[in-house]
Amino acid sequence: MRYCGVGTAVTAAGADSSVPSGIVRAVGMTGVGSHVPSRVLTNHDLERIVATTNEWIVSRTGMRERRIAAEHEATSDLAVVAGRRALEAAGVKPADLDMIVVATITPDYPFPNTACLVQRQLGADRAFCMGLEAACSGFLYGMETARCYIAAGAAQTALVIGAEKMSAVLDWTDRSTCVLFGDGAGAAVLRPVPAGRRGIISSVFGSDGSLSDLLMIPAGGSRRPATAETVAAREHCLRMRGREVFRYAVTHMAEAGLAALHKAGLSISDIRWVIPHQANLRIIAAIGERLHCPASRFIVNVEKYGNTSAASIGLALDEAVRDGRIREGDLVLMVAFGAGFTWGATVMEWTGRA
Ligand code: ACO
Predict the structure, then answer these.
(1) Mutate to test the pocket of ligand 1, among 174, 176, 244 (most ligand atoms within 8 A of CB)
(2) Domain range enclosing 331
(3) pTM exceeding the 0.85 threshold for the entire prediction
(4) Cβ atoms 179, 57 nearer than 8 A
(5) Number of domains forming the structure of the chain
(6) Shortest CA distance to 177 belongs to which of 72, 306, 48?
(7) Where residue 22 sits, what CATH number does that domain have?
């Protein structure tokens, strides 16, 4: 057992003990993985649950189906499968991990954090583990957290996972929200990149807590602990003012994308692929217009999985890497927006195991 932290040089086997703590070095993704549960819930299935139609859902969101976890499956179970796949792709053993970050708004429990539960299942017993709550921006926030630790020499190898069992927090009588979300997990291994490679090039982040009421789960925390009344009023379920969220999502993802490009000294024409948070096809189209980027350069899978919150960018990234769309050296722009509000954008050179 050993310990990592700011100011503590990484000295374990596999780590570069010649890099002293405090040194900033380039960090990249060396492997990605994802996982979705096998049960498919189509729009036609939803027609039998709430007063909706396939046509409404497709025309307003672009979604056709989503995956729903089994009753016995929790967020950590989805996260572990995605995490194992990312480790395998990166050629990294669980025992080599210094750090595990799990971003989720649907943790297995209020505590312990879901990353510790993932650690237990992976057997990554040298890692320190933290949960991160930034809703749909969670994967990018998790990446940046891990990048900072690695860049500073406080960790060498990190596993970042965005995972959600959104089906556990949906009000299945509310047609305006239950049709939008799905379950899944996306994961990435982050490490220093070899000389000459760029890895993560730039990131920008922002938040606006004054708008937190627009998208939230009202009860179950310390402000409104669970009572028979909160359960009866379905206050443990997600509530969203969709139209307002839509507007802010477009504005912030587009602005963050442009800011990350500016910070990287790049323009949109340098970017091979844009991976937006998969909230809604209309939101993605509006971001494309503002970035002056054609739809053909967007990675989109919202039609298959709906909005998987913190899992969505990692899931889309993994699919595009595995099917060969994203290749070594490609520049990728990722943009995210979620409850809080939180938002961010990251520009990355895809390095893979290089
Ligand atoms: N089926 C049929 N009708 C519906 C449904 C449904 N599933 N849901 C809502 N409607 C109705 C409404 O009741 C409303 O009817 P009314 O005009 O008679 O009142 C009508 O459709 C239009 O509702 P709007 O809310 O205006 O529809 P809109 O075109 O804005 O689409 C949507 C709604 C899809 C929710 C959209 O606003 C959206 O995508 N918002 C953003 C979601 C998002 O980005 N989330 C990201 C963060 S998520 C996170 O962080 C966890």
Answers:
(1) 176
(2) 200-349
(3) yes
(4) yes
(5) 2
(6) 306
(7) 3.40.47.10
